[in-house]
Amino acid sequence: AAEETQGYTISKDSLKTSLLQLECHFTWDLHKEDVGLEALEERILDHIKFVKECNITDYNILSYVCHLKNSNEEGLRNLQKAEEAIQEHHPGEIARRSLVTWGNYAWIYYHMQRYEEAQTYVSKVENSCKKLSGTALGKIQLPEVCAEQGWALLRFGEKYYERAKNCFENALKSEPDNPDFNAGYAIAMFRLEGCAWWNNEEMWPCLEALKRAVELNPNNTTLLALLALELQRLKQTNEGERYIEKGLQKTPDFPGFLRYAASFYRKKGEVDKAVNILKEALALTPNSVTVHHQLGLCYKFKIIQLKKARYPPQEEVENLMEFAIFHLKTVIDKNPLFYSPYSDLGNVYALGKRYEEAEEMFQKVLHRNDIPCVAKQLIYLNYGNFQHFHMKSESKAIEYYMEGLKMEKDSYGRKQCSEAVEKLLKQKIERGLGHATAFSTLGLVHKLNGKKQEAIESKAHKNPV
Ligand SMILES: *[C@@H]1O[C@H](CO)[C@@H](O)[C@H](O)[C@H]1NC(C)=O
Ligand SMILES: *[C@@H]1O[C@H](CO)[C@@H](O)[C@H](O)[C@H]1NC(C)=O
Ligand SMILES: *[C@@H]1O[C@H](CO)[C@@H](O)[C@H](O)[C@H]1NC(C)=O
């Protein structure tokens, strides 16, 4: 019996070694700490429901998400659906199209301690790779598998976008005209460019990639909307709007497109139009975190607009406030990891003079250490503004703007923190208040900004010889 146990242990080890060789979601370094699992699951289910293309990629990643949520049985059911879709859409290439699905099967069975079934799927993958590559080792890198990894990475958030772009680039080396690979590449570039903007980094040139993706995927209005948003970024709003209008005609009921269309109009300042589109999207996907978040932002924007009037319409403001709070609370409820709705909600409470609730919201994110630097700087900026403009505390405002500035990464938020604190300090100095501290803090601002000369001058002011 001892021997049997030992033999069994050895095969379990070698099984693990084989599993680690597989190309599938379990070996792609996708961490559950980086996503809100519930929200991700919801998003994939919505996509399956509305997209016209076949669902293989979605069912594969869904099986992995189910595993992360400790529901392996549900994971297996989704893999079965992936298999059915493969049989329906690629009856002539079952082995080639099933590698990721079978890899996920093997891993889920392994986690369920059903080692024989796991081994069966490992063997299926290994044998198929040998056949497909025509070599005994069976090492093979199929472009479809690269692309599938790219799609998975894109779903796991910002940290993964650069790797996603590389995957699509690799896939394109084998098939430069493949519509799906071009779509993935363009989407990854678009998202990287969005991040670069917040990071104050050089832009990623994604206009050409988007144009090419649209050309190769003429029916895909999601890509059309991204092209429109890119043109808007490049200040070619009118051309962009023509694409949005075209998309609205073609797929008036595809939520993935509607969200981007709404985003386009919100950024253009046509908030009522954005709200109407978002309401349609919400009717189609009532649990979408993105739609709730965008609605919250639109209502917040409307409140700010109305409050600019000398006599704001009180009742309307109150109503909008309730809507904004409802939608932002829903977002937090559905994806507590997502950080920006906390300061958005904090800002809304502040607009309604509900300062305690605002404070509570900001405190929830100020102390979190899982938030990327660039986002944290924006949170400090928002909280600094809250202290400055609502709580009328210049010293606290300065303290928090400085926190944002002390984080070294150059970003939009850091720049805003720097400008805000510099302005505040200069005002203080002009009014002859808090002279010495104001000067030394200003010196620190310049030092943190690398303006050595000004730091020296400011020091000279403080200690006049
Ligand atoms: C994707 O899955 C959904 C839900 O099962 C189904 O209605 C739809 O027809 C599938 N898409 C394709 C192209 O098979
Ligand atoms: C685009 O959609 C039209 C109408 O539904 C269809 O006839 C055409 O085959 C589609 N083109 C592609 C490339 O999928
Ligand atoms: C466009 O393609 C992307 C990538 O395959 C997909 O996620 C999206 O749902 C598609 N949009 C439409 C409208 O078909």
TrEMBL record:
<dbReference type="GO" id="GO:0005829">
    <property type="term" value="C:cytosol"/>
</dbReference>
<feature type="repeat" description="TPR">
    <location>
        <begin position="255"/>
        <end position="288"/>
    </location>
</feature>
<dbReference type="InterPro" id="IPR019734">
    <property type="entry name" value="TPR_rpt"/>
</dbReference>
<comment type="similarity">
    <text>Belongs to the IFIT family.</text>
</comment>
<keyword id="KW-0677">Repeat</keyword>
<dbReference type="GO" id="GO:0045087">
    <property type="term" value="P:innate immune response"/>
</dbReference>
<dbReference type="GO" id="GO:0051607">
    <property type="term" value="P:defense response to virus"/>
</dbReference>
<keyword id="KW-0802">TPR repeat</keyword>
<feature type="repeat" description="TPR">
    <location>
        <begin position="339"/>
        <end position="372"/>
    </location>
</feature>
<dbReference type="Pfam" id="PF13432">
    <property type="entry name" value="TPR_16"/>
</dbReference>
<keyword id="KW-0399">Innate immunity</keyword>
<dbReference type="Pfam" id="PF13414">
    <property type="entry name" value="TPR_11"/>
</dbReference>
<protein>
    <recommendedName>
        <fullName>IFIT5 protein</fullName>
    </recommendedName>
</protein>
<dbReference type="Pfam" id="PF13374">
    <property type="entry name" value="TPR_10"/>
</dbReference>
<keyword id="KW-0391">Immunity</keyword>
<dbReference type="Pfam" id="PF13181">
    <property type="entry name" value="TPR_8"/>
</dbReference>
<dbReference type="InterPro" id="IPR011990">
    <property type="entry name" value="TPR-like_helical_dom_sf"/>
</dbReference>
